[in-house]
Amino acid sequence: MVVYNKNTSLEKIRGMLSAQNGILRSADLEQNGIPRIYLSILVKDSKLRRISRGVYAAINILVDEMVIIQARFKNANFSHGTALYLLDLTDRTPLTYTVTVPSGYNATSLKADGVRVFFVKRELRELGAITLSSPYGNNIQTYNPERTICDILRNRNQLDIQIVNEALKRYATRKDRDIHQLYQYASQFRIEKIVRNNIEILL
User: Fold this and answer.
1) pLDDT tens digit string along 113-146?
2) Which CATH number fits domain 6-63: 2.30.29, 3.30.70, 1.10.3470, 1.10.10?
3) Helices 161-173 and 145-154 sit at what angle, rounded to 10 degrees?
């Protein structure tokens, strides 16, 4: 018979909530050997509230939709228009969130939630991945400026050309731009000529 220490389990749960911006997944409990019954107990005690299937939030936090998306979909990084907004490469607040997932990923639930999904080869999904703050100040996964520029040029026919042009101009004037890295990424995506043609006229 397995005996669980209630205080130890609750301490672990509090630690996870603190480390994960007040968000807890049922899968987190499984990974830490904590029975799911604690979720029901904490909801009943008004310590947690259920946000969506398998995702819970501490009562005292504002629900950050971007954090919820990444809690539910671990393989999704915010990209394209959403990344442009997070990186201050556009003033347009995204009407829908945009993410990139690895090829073969089942994005049915993401799309059902109104999220726009782009796919990329698995070996390129983490290229240029960084952690930034959401508008609520929580850590989320997105891409750096160089990767984002490559993404919007790769998919320029699916994006608003005004947003693309504005982002290119803003990137060209950034003091922290890394043109060498940009061309390295472009080479990996096999769009080096497209990137050079669009960037060099702005430098």
Assistant:
1) 899 999 999 999 999 999 999 988 888 999 999 9
2) 1.10.10
3) 150
